[in-house]
């Protein structure tokens, strides 16, 4: 029996894979367009939604899915806009009891109107810090390098990551087209990251096979894997990931929308969980995939038969897999376990 969204809503959650430029509100986009005098390809909520919200039918590939970002990025070229969307993202998290979010973005994509990388970082940090103060949601930033831009830009972004370590940034990521741009091209950037004792994650095994995951693990020495839906194709690598407790950042809706999997029922999440892998549930893009962590958990229950107890385990995996320092992580995990126990007790009392 599926677990209702109502039951899932109060549970404490994390969102470890969430792109800032894929997680704006439609209303905010329209207001920003008016303020900035930007001509969007649509000017009312429904038509704009039809262009930027992707689903299995209106989107046939990752490349098509990424088209939505060309529109959102038109609006994210000012400090004010970056601060606002970062702030609103934390408000959206608070509404569904996401206690901790790792927000990722690639500062280089926000330089089209002349903003400097440090101004972009400071604007996002300001929005997140204000959001934490007002809504109580904790956060960390992951800076993304982009495979198809250039390895030199990735090195610059890695250096930015080093400069902002302990100032809001908790990790580095590599996103973009896997097949044409192998991870090992970005080795130098990841060397800078690892050499400075910074966490990293890599989008791998989403649109390309296990060899991409192999490179992420053994060349870039990633600490987590984004998506990894194709990890199941290589049992040896799967066992390595399992034995080393390398967390997978699973984003069900996004994987269906980009056709990384044919449908929810065929997503490997159920197999990974049963096999023992450390799987976490995340949104990827709250706007583009029209989702929340609560909705993703509900879909896991509906299509892959996750029980409430299993969902709680997924949430615990999330708290265990954050890029927070160990002592902060343990504190937050214990608070989450306590909250989950309280919620269960309430339910038992209700039944009595
Ligand atoms: Zn992603």
Task: Describe the protein.
With 352 residues, this protein is α/β, with parallel strands linked by helices. It has one domain (5-323): Metal-dependent hydrolases (TIM Barrel, Alpha-Beta Barrel). Helices cover 50% and strands 13% of the residues. The protein contains 16 helices and eight strands. It has helices at residues 5-8, 26-36, 45-52, 62-65, 67-75, 79-95, 117-135, 151-163, 187-195, 210-218, 235-243, 252-257, 269-275, 293-304, 308-320, 326-351, and strands at 13-19, 98-105, 138-146, 169-175, 199-204, 224-227, 248-250, 279-281. It has an eight-stranded parallel beta sheet. The protein starts with a helix and ends with a helix. Bound molecules: zinc ion.
Could you write a compact summary of the structure shown?
The chain is α/β, with parallel strands linked by helices.
Tell me the name of the CATH class.
Alpha Beta
Q: How does the overall form come out from the CA principal axes? A: globular
Please count the helical segments: 16
Strand content: 5-15%
**Hetero groups:** zinc ion
């Amino acid at each position: 029996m599926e677990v209702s969204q109502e039951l899932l809503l109060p549970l404490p959650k994390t969102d470890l894979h969430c792109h800032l430029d894929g997680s704006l509100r439609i209303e905010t986009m329209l207001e920003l367009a008016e303020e900035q005098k930007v001509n969007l390809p649509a000017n009312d909520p429904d038509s704009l939604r039809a262009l930027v919200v992707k689903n299995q039918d209106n989107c046939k590939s990752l490349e098509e899915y990424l088209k939505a970002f060309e529109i959102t990025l038109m609006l994210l070229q000012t400090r004010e806009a970056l601060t606002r969307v970062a702030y609103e993202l934390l408000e959206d998290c608070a509404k569904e009891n996401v206690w901790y979010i790792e927000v990722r973005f690639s500062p280089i994509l926000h330089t089209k109107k002349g903003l400097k990388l440090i101004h972009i970082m400071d604007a996002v940090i300001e929005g997140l810090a204000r959001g934490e103060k007002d809504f109580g949601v904790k956060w960390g930033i992951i800076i993304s390098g982009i495979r198809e831009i250039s390895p030199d830009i990735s090195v610059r972004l890695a250096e930015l990551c080093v400069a902002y370590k302990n100032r809001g940034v908790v990790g580095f990521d590599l996103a973009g087209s896997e097949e044409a741009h192998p991870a090992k091209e970005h080795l130098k950037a990841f060397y800078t990251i690892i050499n400075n004792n910074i966490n990293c994650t890599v989008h791998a095994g989403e649109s390309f096979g296990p060899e991409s995951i192999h490179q992420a693990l053994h060349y870039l020495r990633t600490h987590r894997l984004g998506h990894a839906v194709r990890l199941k194709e290589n049992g040896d690598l799967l066992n390595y990931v399992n034995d080393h407790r390398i967390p997978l950042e699973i984003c069900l809706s996004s994987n269906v929308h980009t056709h990384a999997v044919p449908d929810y029922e065929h997503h490997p999440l159920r197999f990974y969980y049963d096999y023992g892998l450390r799987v976490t549930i995340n949104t990827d893009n709250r706007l583009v995939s029209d989702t929340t962590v609560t909705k993703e958990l509900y879909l896991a229950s509906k299509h892959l038969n996750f029980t409430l107890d299993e969902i709680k385990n997924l949430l615990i995996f999330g708290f265990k897999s954050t890029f927070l320092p160990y002592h902060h992580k343990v504190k937050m995990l214990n608070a989450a376990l306590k909250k989950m126990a309280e919620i269960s007790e309430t339910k038992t009392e209700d039944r009595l």
